[in-house]
Design goal:
Rossmann fold, 10 strands, six-stranded parallel beta sheet, 8 helices, two-stranded antiparallel ribbon
């Protein structure tokens, strides 16, 4: 039975995670989940830097480097929120190249990327070998989906985080970063906003996480 998540502000979150990660032996799998614009990459990088400074080996993975090609991402239609949740990521490749080899019984031989979003091109980078003692930090959307749970229905992450950010804030951040519409109700971004709302309503990631962070 999964326990009730801890709920902390950003300032207390890094020490909380660091203390629990340092207690663990072997490879530790950490997920940083949240909506687009929640600050996942920034927070994951900060956690990685703090752990590295503490002398731990850290492997950083971004789920955005495991996208499906456009023919799959848009097979339910370019405006489909359901398609955005179901078809954005290549879960099979992510499981084969990251989760299985870096898991507790894995061989440690992994690939950090399978796709280049900038060029919309598949990748086959060289295999890397992880040390037996390492922290694997993955940032990305939809990391609490049932497809990333084990055969017993339990999440595969040793620790997982949900970054709590209102859509008004996350969409504004994306507008500043990417020049996208600055209104969550704008129909030009409805596929993405409504898809993420669908994920939250179906999965309740804040309930599945070990730590919920107010990141706004």
């Amino acid at each position: 039975m999964e326990t009730k998540p801890e709920h902390l502000g950003r300032a207390a979150a890094l020490p909380w995670l660091g203390s629990r990660i340092r207690q663990r032996a072997g490879r530790t799998m950490v997920a940083i989940d949240g909506v687009d614009g929640a600050g996942k990459t920034t927070f994951a990088d900060e956690l990685a830097a703090e752990l590295t400074d503490a002398g731990l080996s850290v492997i950083r993975i971004s789920f955005d480097d495991f996208l499906n090609p456009p023919t799959i991402r848009h097979r339910q239609g370019r405006n489909s929120p359901e398609g955005f949740v179901a078809d954005t990521y290549d879960y099979e490749r992510f499981i084969d190249d990251v989760l299985d080899p870096l898991g507790p019984e894995g061989c440690g031989r992994y690939r950090a990327k399978s796709y280049d979003p900038a060029t919309e091109s598949p990748l086959s980078p060289p295999w890397q070998v992880a040390p037996d003692q390492a922290v694997v930090i993955v940032d990305g959307m939809f990391l609490h989906r049932n497809r990333l749970r084990n055969a017993r229905g339990r999440k595969i992450w040793d620790l997982s985080v949900w970054l709590e950010v209102p859509f008004e804030v996350s969409v504004h951040r994306l507008a500043q970063r990417d020049g996208t519409p600055d209104d969550p109700n704008d129909q030009r971004i409805a596929r993405y906003v409504e898809g993420q709302k669908l994920y939250i309503a179906m999965i309740h990631p804040a309930d599945r996480a070990d730590l919920v962070i107010d990141n706004f």
